[in-house]
Design a protein that fits this description.
mainly beta, 4 helices, binds zinc ion
Length: about 400
């Protein structure tokens, strides 16, 4: 009975408060006079496995189909890939009604490693599962040099060649992804370059180059931002459309082509650019230290291994500390996370106030300060930031994800 009242209350609570209501302390505080009689089942995830188009049984990739086993699953209508910290990388898909113990769902191209959670039509929410490893979809076809396009063309329209500088890109990196193109045979009356999200097929950005003459190589570049915001990670592709004087049209790729002039956009790059290993228990977040606990994750690598900004942003502090050694703290661009890199072999060339881009070199692995062995000590802090009202959280899941793609 107490359980059903708890569920009723959960079903009725504002979404953001549900987790708090589910806490045992709150549950026992209920007075039982709520009068709620509606039972809202709370789905529970016990196991997630990959069914089709898998990297392996336990490793999914965009385009896979997964199976969730658990209880109270009959009413489940949505599955959310929670990704890493924050909601910016969350992806929700519809789930076909299955049995009470089993549901199936598609892994969209945009889903990233992290827990999954389930929502029922009646508003029940499961707790997040253990993190599920999701690998990127099969890679785009590299096409760094101009080559004739496979896309449709009406006779009379210009012939098109295109090329895309890279198949892997990072939000807020410099240089960005460069798309080059050239017309031949005829001039165009108009040119349009569209950036298409392969996750849902929407056009997220458009360029209209003015030089419509043939035999001229032109290009556009993109840095993973849309206005002042970071674009969602995932597969994107460039699509060029050229209209001829007689109304004939040529396109560089078919609608739904997620390989031609395509690239995968990631929100972070792994910061240690060389052979590396995560430390043992002592290097973990929360490990005991004299007088405090370990607030970061250690990644061991040879002294001198290049260190880059996992995410661009603004440098908040650059200093030396007897424990941290040479360190630098970067307020991540569009992330609400501060990134603190410690034990650098030399002071970073960047200073407080400087703008740093994703993947830019910020120093090298060292053992300055209180360090046994050369390693990067990385701390991740929630907003408002490092010793600024935020709190540290475990960087290891993020580091492992970044390491899986970069
Ligand atoms: Zn450490």
């Amino acid at each position: 009975m107490r359980d059903s009242r708890l569920h009723a209350k959960r079903g009725a609570c504002a979404l953001i408060l549900c987790a708090a209501v589910a806490a045992p302390a709150t549950a026992t505080a209920q007075d039982g006079s709520g009068g709620g009689s509606m039972y809202v089942a709370t789905p529970k995830v016990s196991k997630v496995t990959c069914l089709r188009s898998c990297a392996s049984k336990k490793r999914l990739r965009g385009g896979s189909v997964l199976v969730v086993k658990g209880s109270e699953l009959a009413g489940v209508s949505q599955l959310t890939y929670d990704g890493s910290y924050g909601t910016g990388d969350d992806v929700t898909v519809k789930v076909r009604a299955g049995s009470n113990t089993r549901v199936q769902a598609r892994v969209p191209l945009g889903a990233v490693t992290g827990p999954i959670s389930l929502t029922t039509t009646a508003g029940g929410h499961s707790r997040p599962s253990k993190p599920v490893l999701i690998l990127p979809p099969l890679p785009p076809e590299p096409n760094p040099e101009l080559s004739p396009v496979p896309g449709p063309r009406v006779a009379g329209a210009p012939r098109l060649e295109t090329g895309t500088s890279r198949t892997k890109a990072f939000v807020d990196a410099r240089p960005g992804v460069k798309f080059s193109f050239r017309l031949s045979g005829a001039s165009a009356t108009s040119l349009t370059v569209e950036l298409v999200s392969a996750v849902d097929g929407t056009v997220v950005k458009t360029w209209t180059p003015q030089d419509v003459a043939p035999d001229v190589v032109q290009s556009v570049s993109w840095n993973g931002r849309l206005g002042h915001s970071a674009a969602r990670p995932g597969r994107y592709s460039f699509r060029l459309t050229a209209a001829g004087a007689d109304g004939s049209v040529a396109r560089s790729s078919q609608t739904g082509d997620v390989q031609r002039d395509a690239f995968d956009l990631y929100d972070h790059i792994f910061p240690v650019r060389g052979a590396h290993a995560f430390g043992g228990a002592a290097g973990r977040f929360g490990a005991g230290r004299t007088g405090h606990t370990h607030q970061g994750q250690d990644t061991f690598a040879k002294c001198g291994t290049r260190l880059v900004a996992a995410r661009g942003g603004r440098v908040k502090y650059k200093a030396y500390h007897s424990l941290a050694g040479n360190y630098i703290v970067i307020d991540g661009d569009n992330t609400d996370v501060d990134y603190a890199y410690m034990h650098l072999d030399q002071p970073s060339p960047f200073s407080a106030g400087d703008r740093v881009y994703t993947g830019q070199t910020i120093g090298a692995v060292g053992d300055t300060g209180d360090a046994v062995g050369c390693h990067l000590h990385l701390e991740l802090w929630t907003g408002p930031g490092w010793y600024d009202g935020g709190h540290p959280f475990d960087p290891l899941p993020s580091l492992k994800a970044w390491d899986s793609w970069s």
